[in-house]
Design a protein that fits this description.
By secondary structure, the chain is mainly alpha-helical. The protein is about 65% helix and about 0% strand. It has 5 helices and no strands. Helix 2 crosses helix 3, helix 3 packs across helix 4 and helix 3 packs parallel to helix 5. The longest helix is centred in the middle third of the chain and has 25 residues. The radius of gyration is 22 Å and the shape is globular. The two termini are about 40 Å apart.
């Protein structure tokens, strides 16, 4: 009988040790999400108040695309990350176009109403996602398993 010998190298180390490392740069996603929320919120406030700040346009455009995209991405949690990204960006464009088309068809074009409508759509979508997640029962954990 022949015995097979396998060695564990540094490249085959478990991924848990990579996630558990301390220090800066460990996980930037909460920081980036907070910065994106701040930029979008500032853009919406600047547009609604009619400020003349030079960055009002870019911040408002960021809000108009990021708010519905984030809401739709939260609603599409079952997709893989790339598919969710593509679907949420396309959905954000569709939401913006439908709001603009609706206002033009009703002869009620207004920047503030458009921003409010996109913000309301995003808020309602996120609220519905949160309510749906809260109404689902939590999966039961087995008594043998210990979580750290």
């Amino acid at each position: 009988m022949q015995r097979l010998h396998t060695e564990t190298t540094a490249t085959t180390a478990p991924r848990d040790t990579e996630r558990a490392r301390p220090g800066p740069g460990r996980d930037l996603s909460p920081l980036l999400a907070g910065a994106a929320t701040a930029v979008g919120g500032i853009g919406a406030v600047l547009a609604l108040t009619g400020s003349d700040w030079p960055l009002r346009g870019p911040f408002t455009l960021f809000f108009l695309f990021a708010a519905p995209a984030a809401a739709l991405a939260a609603a599409l949690s079952g997709l893989d990350p790339f598919g969710r990204l593509i679907a949420s960006v396309a959905g954000a464009i569709v939401v913006n176009m439908l709001v603009a088309q609706g206002m033009l068809a009703l002869h009620r074009w207004s920047v503030t109403v458009g921003i409010a409508a996109v913000g309301a759509f995003s808020a309602v979508t996120l609220l519905l996602v949160l309510l749906r997640r809260r109404s689902r029962p939590e999966p039961r954990r087995s008594a043998n398993r210990q979580d750290a």
